[in-house]
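Annotators were shown the component list below and the corresponding predicted structure, then asked to write short factual statements about the assembly.
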Amino acid sequence: MDIVFLFYDRMTALDAVGPHEVLSRLPGATIHRVAKQAGSIRTDSGLTLIANSPLSTISRADVLLVPGAGNATTLRDHPEILEWVRKIDKTTTWTTSVCTGSLILGAAGILSGVRATTHWAVFDRLKPLGAIPTHGRVIEDGKILTAAGVSAGIDMALQLAAKLAGVPFAQAVQLGIEYDPAPMFDVGSPEKADPAIREALRARMLAKFEDFK
Amino acid sequence: MDIVFLFYDRMTALDAVGPHEVLSRLPGATIHRVAKQAGSIRTDSGLTLIANSPLSTISRADVLLVPGAGNATTLRDHPEILEWVRKIDKTTTWTTSVCTGSLILGAAGILSGVRATTHWAVFDRLKPLGAIPTHGRVIEDGKILTAAGVSAGIDMALQLAAKLAGVPFAQAVQLGIEYDPAPMFDVGSPEKADPAIREALRARMLAKFEDFK
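Structure shown to annotators:
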């Protein structure tokens, strides 16, 4: 089973690394970390990850995962990446995204009529891309799995692991990464957050996603 | 404010990347990703991260974070890393660990009489290192913050962010990474997990931590 992570400059590290921690444990899975060019990928938090393969060497995937970015509009300047996403999606059993990665799927044209989610702050950017914006931490529609913001990728990957390798396996991975979350505050979604904090954050993020109007 | 992440070969990527996603957003923070040598660090899931600075260039930290590894005994072969941890700890405001990173703090000799936690499967490895094993997702004792397994680093980092930059800031980061966890199964701790899954996993992990007996 080939699980392909798309990496790109200024992506959000945790969007990819959360699911990677889960999916890399799947028995018999080969993980490909793929970017326009192999080598260093500087994420939007300054951490550098290494992509092992250039896009040109990967022509199919069982699972494709597209992470998001604080400013996913950067991918608008790389139509060859969007073209590659469109091509790989035709071969997948599961096409998945985390956070604003779904806007990249949408920009690639593969969310037409598909129920999907994204980071809450840019939720209204889904509709112009043809998707059916759907609230939820993980949204499944056919073979498309989209996760909400950043940390939701962990929930999505565990759900996918259950589909790919069975519930006991997914539960063992969840226990292995001790995913029994207990945040000190219960403010991780827009409904639960302080409105002032939420609107300041929304304005800051939306400003970076003008292109996706 | 200097926040120093220790990187080392075969570390667990998510142990570091979860907190990195949180702490890198702190205003005025400089993040250092430090390893024995600068350059490629292959994590235990196959993902390669880049360390920017060698240990020799970092002599102090406001915050030190030590991630764990599926097999943290690898650090037993690198006494100079343990020596560096011991030296940096003397300069910190907060010394922190995720998962089996606390066993590294213990091996460095800085958990004597300190209440601490670690990954549930190797919990009994804390006592021989002088620590007071304490159950909890995040344990604070003086300036030492230890988190439970892998994903607990996110909870720890948000708690630390509240201390360093205030509660509203920490809440904004939590909302920014949409940390409103909703795992499909509620099996992420040993108490909640299926006993057969738990004991199989415990045996497998313990076998890798013989040195810490």
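Statements collected:
1. The first helix of chain A runs from residue 13 to 23.
2. Residues 6 and 34 of chain A are 5 Å apart (CA to CA).
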